[in-house]
């Protein structure tokens, strides 16, 4: 089967599952709401991160979206039915990843620009400039998309939504709120911390906005490759 109809079939699965649509909506709501609350009580040290503070919570919804989109295939023999229609497992997994990435990126861009507008309205004269703000909005969208795909790859390896979320959510909360302040350490190269450098007005570590996103992209690529290997090598 050609790639286009496989992608179309995967997109139908995503748009017809309420849990996935709810996770996409939660990305926007959580990011914008927590960002607005943070901006209302922010200082002037890092206005860009004050605007996009809520990404730390929005990425949890992005992870839930990527995880659920893949783990649903391993319930009730759904994957066996899918592979009977699409025997090429590599093509199917590529279509699944694409079907996750496209809506995640679209919602991520919407989230980035809505969050920027809300943050600028709350901060007023202390808000970041448009150039810096647009960089943050795009960085926000890319980071959320990469985290959704990172979760999708891990879900393909673990074959369980519960197991994937049990690993990723505590890991991200610990990194964000416990070791996240250890700038210049190995924590800067973890997927969560690296991608969020693009959301800061200034940075002290070795990574910049785009190199940080590149590090997150490498983590995502590794997870997707591991997921593709698992799908190809293990029984459905």
Question: What does this entry look like structurally?
Answer:
The protein is mainly alpha-helical and 236 residues long. 75% of the residues lie in helices and 0% in strands. It has helices spanning 3-16, 18-40, 47-51, 55-71, 78-85, 89-123, 130-158, 161-177, 191-195, 209-233. The two termini are 19 Å apart. The mean pLDDT is 90.
Secondary structural class:
mainly alpha
Give the beta-strand count. 0
User: What portion of the residues fall into strands of 2 or more residues?
Assistant: under 5%
Helix content: over 70%
Poorly predicted runs of 5 or more residues: none
General shape: elongated
Query: Main sheet?
Result: none
Can I get a quick summary?
The chain is an all-alpha fold and 236 residues long. 75% of the residues lie in helices and 0% in strands.
Q: What's the SSE blueprint?
A:
Layout: H1 3-16, H2 18-40, H3 47-51, H4 55-71, H5 78-85, H6 89-123, H7 130-158, H8 161-177, H9 191-195, H10 209-233
Helix pairs in contact: 1-6, 2-4, 2-6, 4-7, 4-8, 6-7, 6-10, 7-8, 7-10
Jot down its keywords:
about 240 residues; single chain; 10 helices; mainly alpha
């Amino acid at each position: 089967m050609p790639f286009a109809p496989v992608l179309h079939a995967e997109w139908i699965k995503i748009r017809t599952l309420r849990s996935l649509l709810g996770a996409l909506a939660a990305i926007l709501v959580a990011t914008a709401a927590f960002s607005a609350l943070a901006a209302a009580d922010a200082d002037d040290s890092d206005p860009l991160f004050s605007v996009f503070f809520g990404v730390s919570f929005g990425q949890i919804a992005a992870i839930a979206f990527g995880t659920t989109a893949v783990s649903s295939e391993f319930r009730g023999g759904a994957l066996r039915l899918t592979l009977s229609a699409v025997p090429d497992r590599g093509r199917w997994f590529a279509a699944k990843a694409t079907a996750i990435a496209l809506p995640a990126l679209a919602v991520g861009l919407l989230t980035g620009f809505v969050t920027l507008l809300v943050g600028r309205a709350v901060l007023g004269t202390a808000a970041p400039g448009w150039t810096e703000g647009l960089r943050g909005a795009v960085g926000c969208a890319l980071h959320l998309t990469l985290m959704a795909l990172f979760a999708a790859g891990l879900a393909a390896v673990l074959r369980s939504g519960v197991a994937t979320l049990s690993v990723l959510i505590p890991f991200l909360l610990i990194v964000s709120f416990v070791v996240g302040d250890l700038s210049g350490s190995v924590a800067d190269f973890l997927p969560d911390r690296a991608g969020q450098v693009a959301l800061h007005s200034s940075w002290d570590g070795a990574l910049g906005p785009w190199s940080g996103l590149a590090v997150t992209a490498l983590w995502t690529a590794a997870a997707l490759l591991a997921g593709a290997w698992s799908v190809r090598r293990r029984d459905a």
